[in-house]
Amino acid sequence: MAIAAEIPAEVSEPGASDSAAAGAAITGSVADSTGAIIPGAQVELLDAAGAVVTTTVTDGAGNFRVRAPRPADYTVSVTMNGFETSARHLHVGAGAGSPIAFTLAIASSVTQVTVNAGTDIDLTSSENNGDTSVMTASDLKALPVFDNDYVTAMSNFMDAGDTATAGSGLMVDGVESNRATVSPSAVQEIHINEDPYSARYYRPGRGQLEIITKPNADRYHGEFNFMFRDSALNAQNAFAPNKPFEQRRIYEGNLTGPIAHSQKTGFLFSFNRSEEDLDAVVNATVPDTTNPTNLAGVPYRANVAAPTRDTEFSLRVGHQFTDKNNAYVTYSFQDSSNRNQNVGNQTLPAVGANTDYREDDVILHDDYILSATKLNQASLVLERVDNPYTNVQEGPQIRVQGNFTGGSAQNDQERSEYNARLSDTVSWTRGPHSLKFGINVPHFSRRVLDDRSNSAGTYTFATLADYQNNNPSGFSLAQGQTRFVYHQQEVGGFIQDQIKVTPRLSLTPGLRYDWQNFLARDTNNFSPRLSFAYVLDPASKTVLRGGGGIYYDRIGGGPLVDMARYESARRRVVRVSSRQQALCYPITNCASTDLLPPSLVELQPGIRTPYQMHFGLLVERQVGEKATISVGGRINRGADLFRSVDLNAPLPATNFTFRPNPNVGQLRQIESEGYQKGASLDINYRGRFNRYFTAFAWYSWSHYGNNTDGISWFPEDQANPEAEWGRPSWDQGQRFGIFGEINADHPLNLGFGVFANGGHPYSITTGEDNFGDNLFNARPDGVSRDSETGPDYADLDLRWGYDFKLHPKELDKSPTLGLSASAFNLLNHVNGSYIDSVEGSADFNQVISAAPPRRVQLAMRFVF
Q1: Concatenated DSSP letters for 273-334?
Q2: Which of 554, 576, 739, 774 has the greatest number of C-beta atoms within 10 Å?
Q3: How many CA atoms lie within 13 A of 755 on its CB side?
Q4: What pLDDT, on a 0 to 100 scale, did the predictor assign at position 8?
Q5: What is the rounded distance in angstroms from the CA atom of residue 409 to the CA atom of residue 399?
Q6: Which residues fall within 8 angstroms of residue 689, CB to CB, at 6 or more apart?
Q7: pLDDT, tens digit, for every residue of 555-612?
Q8: 526-529: long-range contacts (C-beta < 8 A, 24 or more apart)?
Q9: Residues 6 or more apart whose Cβ sits within 8 Å of residue 118
Q10: How far apart are CA 67 and CA 71, in angstroms?
Q11: DSSP line for 691-760
């Protein structure tokens, strides 16, 4: 279990004061594995001898409330037809504790659970996987989570090797999503790697984050959070001329309860308003305007205002139609704005862009219990997105390799999307089988791009001296059609069966199928999956787990719009290198770009969908009171991986001055010819070691190698892409992360986070257009791809906080006021984030920017 999954139910610790004649009330909620509420579940309170003290059932919102007759040790048991029994042990004192959140799994009929003080759990089930990282609602309140951004905080426990072209995945209440649709205080749990080889998901376990939202409550409850940061409390940025200004204000909360005192209809309203005024730090080298003969340039450092605003809210209304059927509808809204984006490092203020983002979501969800062993869960999500970009300054963009980027952002465009997502899953238990099958449609969308980017052109200079002499090495310009309509369609289906072979062994075979319109002719993408769990020693809860499977890639929207724009040169892009003097020389004197050949994009004939094969084996066992430690290894193999190659690159025989087809510029072919292999060793800890210490942590040692960095990546030599074997740009070698609590629920408590990662690899480049292809990715002779390693990352975060009951005589019903202070990067370690990799530049191979220094966050919380 996660940190707060172990301890928030405890109203007081053993040994606490038992002066009251009666124990406190115990409250909680019951939901299924997707977060859907379960009304009508039976809740029993048992004493230490296993005798039933009192019983109740969950109401229409899935909530319950029982009162202990006296302070003592108890077990809370929850049962419901068609689901596995779940139980929690706790000590009840005189004061009220946090609500207990039960998540019931679909039952396996051969698993007989006897509920008493010594109750055990089914160690072979996937939800008890000791390699899972889980953050609960109580953890979110007690741990140092920067800006309440739990998605970024939990990403420390994800593995970039488990993602692909479309990036990492996000599931909200069992449905794929592009963002969390509720505020942080309305989140019940966040999971990573709970069921790593499930056929239900197209990504591996550590490539996906799952969010379960809180169910509606039967009584009116609310929470309001206010967070504040200011640069007056920050340390100095190592690369800024003076301390950058920063102030962050976050107003966040939720309200839930019945509608018109109904027992069957309830609501959950959540909101989040974030206002941040901050400075981006520029650290570049620019021409010396006071001394034109100084061709080395002078340093340019500046703090540039880059404010952001974000407003989000959601409203969910749920209704229990019958004892077997409940449903809800949610409307979610987000509106955000960002000013002077992209500025920082070597990018000057003139290259800033202003962005706005508006998203509207309507979510329909229905749970129907078909019988005591069958459950159907269906969701439909309708999305609308609008995302315009505008340039801060108009004009050509100027790139001086390794020194600065100036002129203009040249990124004037607007993206809009209408999308439908569908998910329907059936769970069926019969004998030793727990069968799940279903279909999901993550994208059925119509997208529109109004593209006016690079309409004024981009000039690239190899050196600062070339810029001062007005001698560009490359030029590109986009003309012609600006509006493009395209469609993204993805469909997946799965079936899997968890088989309880013996009380100590379970097998979970599964099969998944995926299709996407980008590669519509590639229709044989079947992904077999298999996992197992075997209990080696029930007494110590030692379990051997393993599995493997195939995972096909998705490409996302980027390649689709590239094909829509460039396959037939509807968006006409021209590229010129200074080596191609027959086309245009000097570049600054091109008479007419209309006469230059356009660049095209095409798919490789017979292109295939990339896939990865993942295999893993681990051993886990219980340590301490209620903690689990696991040690295991994973193997990764990738085949048919995407890359891009310019088939019309200038020929070496012409000294890279002439392209084979003079009527075409760059001919980008998207290929599926890449390969990857890697292995990792993982150590995972999760749970409560004793009454003073609870944590979840993950350490990974890994080594990966491949010959591509993705669908938009080009090799150095277009004629020899196989020579690009090296470390992937995302490979970090070693990663460590831990979130923990010390002395929880005590005034002298402490929440902490420690993160330490190896550096990312990077490639040294010459800054010159050595191959005449206008890619500027040439490396010095004898230097391989990603041969260098960037700086390591180390971070210590601490949080102290305490909740004060406003009515001490009515602890069970008292509103709570909580105050906290958090420090991020407490030791103020300089974590380098960007290295100038251009050979010959003023800052060559030096760190020129860093992650934020120490920052302090103050917070207040009111709960009623």
Answers
A1: EEEEEEEEEEEEEE--TT-TT-TT-EEEEEEEE--EEEEEEEEEEEEEEETTEEEEEEEEEE
A2: 739
A3: 22
A4: 28
A5: 11
A6: 623, 624, 625, 627, 695
A7: 888 899 999 999 999 999 999 888 876 667 677 766 577 888 999 999 999 999 999 9
A8: 527/199, 527/202, 527/551, 527/552, 527/611, 529/197, 529/198, 529/199, 529/496
A9: none
A10: 10
A11: TTEEEEEEEEEEEEEES---TT---SSTT-GGGG-B--TT--SEEEEEEEEESTTSTT-EEEEEEEEPPP
3-state helix, strand, coil in the chain (%, to 5): 10, 50, 40
Report the alpha-carbon distance of residue 126 to residue 103 in Å, rounded: 13
Q: What is the pLDDT of residue 831?
A: 95
**DSSP per-residue string spanning 475-492:** EEEEEE--EEEEEEEEEE
Residue environment code for 164-197, b if the CB has 16+ CB neighbours within 10 A, otherwise e: bbbebbbbbbbbbbbbbbbbbbbbbbbbbbbbbb
Q: Cβ distance 374 to 428 under 8 Å? A: yes
> Is the omega angle on the peptide bond into residue 662 within 30 degrees of 0, that is, cis?
no
402-416 burial string, b = 16+ CB within 10 Å, else e?
bbbbbbbbbbbbbbb
Mean pLDDT of 116-124: 56
**% of the chain with per-residue pLDDT over 70:** 92
CB 686 within 8 A of CB 1: yes
* Lookup result for tokens 């200079």: 461
Specify the residue for token string 């072209």: 165
Surface-to-core class of residue 365, CB atoms within 10 Å of its CB (0-12 exposed, 13-18 middle, 19+ buried): buried
Other beta carbons less than 10 A from residue 71's beta carbon? 23
- Cβ partners under 8 Å of residue 492, min gap 6: 202, 439, 440, 441, 442, 512, 513, 514, 515
Strands 169-172 and 208-213: parallel
Torsion sign across C-alpha atoms 763, 767, 771, 776 = positive
Nearest to 161 by CA among 630, 680, 512, 685: 680
Sheet hosting strand 175-176, strand order edge to edge:
133-136, 187-192, 208-213, 169-172, 175-176
Q: How far apart are CA 17 and CA 23, in angstroms?
A: 11
Three-state DSSP class for residue 93: coil
pLDDT in tens, 623-677: 988 899 999 999 999 999 999 999 999 999 999 989 999 999 999 999 999 999 9
Task: Decide whether 1-121 matches 221-863 in CATH topology.
Answer: no
Decide which of 274 and 216 is more confident. 274
594 by DSSP, 3-state: which?
helix
- Tell me the HSE value of 227 on the side-chain side, using a 13 A CA sphere: 25
CATH superfamily of domain region 221-863: TonB-dependent receptor, beta-barrel domain (2.40.170.20)
Ordered DSSP codes for 36-59: -B-TT-EEEEE-TTS-EEEEEE--
User: How far is C-alpha 196 from the chain's CA centre?
Assistant: 16
Q: How far is CA 178 from CA 103, 167, 495, 862, in A?
A: 24, 11, 24, 30
Query: What is the residue extent of each domain of the chain?
Result: 1-121, 221-863
CB–CB of 173/34 below 8 Å? yes
Confidence of residue 21 (pLDDT cuts 50, 70, 90): very low
Length of the chain (residues) = 864
Give the per-residue SS3 of 358-404: EEEEEEEEEEEEEECCEEEEEEEEEEEEEEEEEECCCCCEEEECCCE
Per-residue pLDDT, 556: 85
Q: What is the pLDDT of residues 479-520, one digit of tens each?
A: 999 999 999 999 999 999 999 999 999 999 999 999 999 998
The structure tokens listed for 610 are: 């990339």
Kindly report the pTM of this predicted structure: 0.84
| Residues 361 and 331 sit within 8 Å (Cβ to Cβ) | yes
pLDDT tens per residue, range 721-746? 999 999 999 999 999 999 999 998 88
What are the residues whose beta carbons fall under 8 Å from the beta carbon of 133, sequence distance 6 or more?
Answer: 2, 154, 157, 191, 192, 193, 684, 686, 696, 698
Measured in degrees and rounded to the nearest 5, phi and psi for residue 594 equal -65, -20
Fold of 1-121: Immunoglobulin-like (2.60.40)
